[in-house]
Specification:
The chain is mainly alpha-helical. It contains four helices and two strands. It has a domain of 87 residues. Strand 1 and strand 2 form a beta hairpin.
């Protein structure tokens, strides 16, 4: 016995394809719907805005080195554990302080802004969390006679997941 809230069984009815619509994206002449080019009236073609900025000119900043990564992490620790302000601050104010700290304590070719610091920290956080998970798994697999180098090799193997990817944020 079925319940009234259940979906009724499929009865084999399939709606017929409307002959007025040959393919997706074509509309009848009276249509004023949005199509791929944007909003149209009476099937006028609306121009699609294109970004003419070359990819090489968009927000091209130099890469971060180990010293700069450590300064960023120190700033994150300093302002993330501040007992005076604590969690009672906006994201912009928080990352603004970290960006100021980074620019004050490290030499950058061009000063790093709030977005660059936040994006770099989030990227590093993702990689570090993946590495810690791989290291913990390798530690659990540690066999008798394994050295720390064997554990690190196994962790790198797990981190790469069969791809040629290296964890680059560790110091040798």
């Amino acid at each position: 016995m079925g319940y009234p809230s259940q979906t009724p069984p499929f009865n084999g009815y399939m709606p017929m394809v409307n002959e007025n619509f040959q393919s997706v994206g074509e509309y009848p002449k009276f249509s004023s719907q949005i199509n791929r080019g944007g909003m149209t009236r009476d099937n006028e073609v609306a121009p699609t805005p294109e970004d003419t900025t070359p990819n090489s000119k968009r927000n091209q900043q130099p890469s971060w080195n180990t010293e700069q990564n450590l300064v960023l992490i120190n700033g994150w620790i300093k302002y993330g554990t501040c007992s005076v302000v604590g969690r009672n601050q906006t994201s912009e104010a928080y990352w603004g302080k970290i960006a100021e700290y980074c620019n004050e304590h490290c030499s950058f070719d061009s000063p790093r802004d709030v977005v660059a610091c936040r994006n770099r920290f989030n990227y590093m956080n993702k990689l570090i969390n993946k590495w810690v998970g791989a290291y913990d798994s390798a530690k659990r697999m540690q066999g008798s006679g394994w050295s720390e180098d064997d554990v690190l090799t196994k962790a790198q193997e797990l981190y790469a997941c069969g791809k040629n990817v290296q964890f680059t944020l560790k110091e040798e």
